[in-house]
Design brief:
By secondary structure, the protein is α+β, with helices and mostly antiparallel strands. The protein has three domains: 61 residues, Dna Ligase, domain 1 (2-Layer Sandwich); 123 residues, D-amino Acid Aminotransferase, Chain A, domain 1, CATH 3.30.470; 113 residues, OB fold (Dihydrolipoamide Acetyltransferase, E2P) (Beta Barrel), CATH 2.40.50.140. The chain contains five helices and 15 strands. Strand 2 and strand 3 form a beta hairpin. The two termini are 36 Å apart.
């Protein structure tokens, strides 16, 4: 679950929230399978992880962890790991493996040599991981820090996604979420211009956002339909945007979401919160959410490099 505060009791463990993809490893003497959090097959996407005996002493095991890849800045990059995870044609895996190296950050254990350990406290499961995992450049045990506030400050300084706080007394919850694992995210803020919207049942359900460059061109930076607006405020936004509908898009280039979009004159601005924005690499906001309509002049919504 998400949280705005970091718990401080001595039974909490603090880890970096790795910006990767969740992978479960199922291994016994007969076969090895890799599945993502939705239990979709990923066995062939990460062939370097299939030799489990090279990094784990168990004969049969179920591991839980995060596959990560580093970007050009040396930090975990969701975009990079998705170059591996979203491959459709498996004949391209070899080429992708050469282009994007991954690391498996193991942080939990469900099953070990014929015994389910999900009912044991996290502290015991972590001790078992210490005994069976052989860390390497490919597979590592997710490290922790004794001070959650200090770790979060480092994460913010490094512009990483956030931290995860885990109750060392907690059992493993299959297919569930509870308050014993808390995600504290490092969000960024931006003010953006509304350049378009989409509708559901006649009500605006998402807006397309942009910011200006030094030449006055409006560049698409993402779209969002989530945030703090109430149903009444979405209806109010619908009424606000209706008179500003335009025939041509205001963005310098066509957004990735455009087929069902209605363009508007870029007159209104919103404050948005986001989890990541690699603007140096020309990417759009990740997980943006509207916080509020604001009175900032559209021309003052500038791209970070302007």
């Amino acid at each position: 679950m998400s949280s705005d505060t970091i718990p401080k009791q001595d039974y909490w463990r603090y880890e970096i929230k790795w910006d990767g993809t969740r992978i479960l490893t199922y291994h016994n003497e007969a076969a090895t399978r890799l599945l993502n959090r939705k239990l979709n097959e990923r066995t062939h996407h990460y062939p370097e992880l299939l030799d489990v005996s090279a990094y784990c002493r168990a004969n049969s095991v179920i591991l839980d962890g995060e596959v990560i890849a580093l970007g050009a800045n040396g930090r975990p990059s969701f975009h990079e790991v998705m170059r591996r995870d979203l491959i459709k044609r498996l004949d391209r895996v070899k080429e992708a493996r050469q282009a994007v190296a991954v690391t498996y950050m193991v942080f939990d254990l469900l099953y070990l040599d014929g015994e389910w350990v999900t009912g044991r406290p996290l502290s015991e499961r972590l001790q078992l991981l210490q005994e069976v995992i052989r860390p390497s450049a490919l597979v590592q045990l997710a490290p922790s820090h004794p001070d959650g506030e200090a770790l979060f400050n480092v994460v913010k300084q490094q512009d990483m996604e956030g931290i995860v706080c885990k109750d060392l007394r907690s059992t493993y919850v299959l297919d569930g979420k509870d308050k014993r694992w808390l995600k504290v995210k490092n969000y960024g803020d931006a003010v953006a211009v509304i350049g378009g919207f989409t509708l559901r049942d006649g009500i605006v359900n998402a807006v397309l956002l942009g910011q200006y460059d030094a030449e006055g061109k409006l560049w698409y930076i993402g779209h969002t339909g989530t945030g703090r607006l109430t149903a009444a405020e979405w209806r109010g936004l619908t009424e606000l945007l209706a008179p500003t509908v335009a025939a041509e898009r205001p963005f310098a280039k066509r957004p990735d979401r455009y087929k069902d979009a209605h363009w508007v004159q870029p007159l209104h601005t919103v404050k948005v919160q986001y989890s990541e924005w690699r603007w140096q690499e020309g990417r759009s906001l990740r997980q943006p959410s509207i916080q509020a309509l604001v009175g900032v002049a559209p021309e003052d919504c500038r791209l970070p490099w302007v």
